[in-house]
Amino acid sequence: MLLFKPSRSTLVSIKPPFRLVTRHFSSQNVAAAAQMPPRLVLKEEDIEEAFLKGSGPGGQKINKTASAVQLKHVPTGMTIKSQATRSRSQNRKIARRLLADKIEAAEKGPESRTALKANIKRKKKASARKKAKRKYKTSQEGREDEEEEVEDDSDEPVEEKVKEERV
Questions:
Q1: Distance between CA atoms of residues 52 and 69, nearest Å
Q2: Which has fewest Cβ within 10 Å: 26, 71, 99, 100?
Q3: Of 9-23, 37-51, 143-157, which has the strongest mean pLDDT?
């Protein structure tokens, strides 16, 4: 009996002896997710926040409302502007996350979350490329074997093959 499906990768069901069974169907590596360091937490007193009118596509409404958020981290002087959504609160969250990631990347360098994510993505891409090469190589080898068999059969007439087998 299926109860609910909380995400694409988890299936929760109740079996007849009335015990809860959870099965995870995910292609994501759990160990890789555990290696990520926690996000940098910014102090509110270190941030200057301003709400600006948006610009760009979105029609007249985006030009009239001050839903874009600009954050400045006072100790480092880094500035982030976010107008990803029409919601001011969502833009605030997005801007804070972007600012934290940018500061962490500047402080930690290759040990930052952003660098680790890029490294994981690079490794997955390289692995997929290697897998594709292997797959192509094995399919080519199979074709060459088939072609050799066909060539062997066509070179000698059937009568000569039979004579050789009898001798």
A1: 6
A2: 26
A3: 37-51
